[in-house]
Amino acid sequence: MLAKLSERPLVRRCVxxxxxxxxxxxxxxxxALLATGLTATGRTGPDLDRFYDQEIEWSACEGTELPDDLxxxxxxxPLDYAEPxxxxxxxxxxxxxxxxxxxxxxxxxxxGPGGSGVLGLAHGRKDFLGLTDxxxxxxxxxxxxxxxxxxxxxxxxxxRALEATDGEEMADPREALRQLREVAAACAEHSGPVLEHxxxxxxxxxxxxxxxxxxxKKLNYLGFSYGTRLGAVYAARFPEKVGRLAxxxxxxxxxPLAEQGLATARGQQTALENFLTWCTEELACPFGQDARxxxxxxxxxxxxxxxxxxxxxxxxxxxxxxxxxxxxxxxYTKEMxxxxxxxxxxxxxxxxxxxxxxxxxGAALPAPQRADDPLVDPxxxxxxxxxxALMAVNCADDPDRPDAERLSRDLARLRAAYEEASPxxxxxxxxxxxxCYGRPKGTDYIREKVKDLDTPKMLLVGTRxxxxxxxxxxxxxxxxxxxPAVVLDNRSEGHTGYGSSECVHRxxxxxxxxxxxxxxxxxxxSEDDGRL
Length: 532
What we know:
Blueprint: H1 46-52, E1 59-60, E2 70-78, E3 88-96, E4 105-109, H2 117-123, E5 136-140, H3 157-164, H4 173-191, H5 200-213, E6 219-224, H6 226-237, E7 242-248, H7 257-279, H8 291-307, E8 310-311, E9 317-318, H9 320-330, H10 337-348, H11 353-359, H12 385-396, H13 404-421, H14 426-434, H15 445-449, E10 458-465, H16 471-481, E11 485-493, H17 502-514, E12 522-524
Parallel strand pairs: 4-5, 4-6, 6-7, 7-10, 10-11, 11-12
Antiparallel strand pairs: 1-2, 2-3, 3-5, 8-9
Helix pairs in contact: 3-4, 3-14, 5-6, 7-13, 7-14, 8-9, 9-11, 10-11, 13-14
């Protein structure tokens, strides 16, 4: 639904509708005009009291085969915190109740940006049962995501970005910018007013409204990947409301978007090479038993699908960039390697169902979605919602906007750097970056204000072999946040540690449940790996 532009009651029942998310196409443009003059407290006037004073009405989730013990509700927030009377948004929430009388809530964000917290909680139930000893475990679809006024570009924004910056278009940066602005206009047309208010600073303010509506004096929080950026922004914005914050797979707060994409392309290429080394030691590997030849075959496969996409049951054509996104999904954990191997083997035989299932999976969910997943309903949420939300938030959080002349210089340099970093993931990641070019710049709040925090201690977890959030970001972010940051070094592979390392899982739970923190710099070794 789009922004509510009329006054409505603040207590809602939540009808949980399924969603289809297509991760392989990255796209949308951030047109964020974020509020300025941020203050240290949430309630800045009587116009916000009605949001902070609301109560959530929980009920059974209405959706096919959702867990019976999952409850759903909604919370209402202003569309624009600077002008709360302009309209409202309804945000979808879900929770598992504490086994006994709860002493509060733990709020989860599964990352993305653009990941559905409702579906993440539904699929990750067993990972969080330990927390329900003391807490209600809650997650939500952030504004612009899933059931919370989903954004869309109504087009394959990634393909448009590749076209705008390839071949003859490169000789005329003004033409490239014109095409990128056309994509931006399509995003605005299909998304409505929420697109201008979708950045992390707005979501952090929503998070504080949720905290109050949940009845918690302090926010207890577990964020994964992008969710760590959200947690850090919340801590800077509302330091006096910080309870126990655990951040797993720590995002950067300072690197430009172009450098972030480059780091991710390198990390994914390393993960792909590790996967292919493993694959070629198996007789079932569809690329044979030579790892170098396998790498060349994957590059050729991506190029072939870009040149000749294949139709899908979801009504779109599956391209090489879709395949790059699907492979990226399968590389997030070693557990997924057999699934990725099977999907690629099916693809080599002309069956795209396996890679399509990976492509609709959601980058930060604990488990991949299957093509026949009962939660999937293509009529409810735009197919491109996750990539549209991902780019809308990333662009809104990034203040760098080069002009046409610099765009021309940057693209030549960046194309070379991205292709060197990864012939498979480089074009895919570069397309995500250029979709921000030519747009109004995002907020500088994160780079300038999220530092030197005065909050209770928080736990930061970095994984050495993380393909999406390199370990150095954990170290850099910890130094930036200052004394509250306690670092746990997860000497393992995969994106985040909570779902794959018993050691990380235990230490995060001990912190959230009992306030017990490991010494900063302590580690979990690869020998501790093993999903619970």
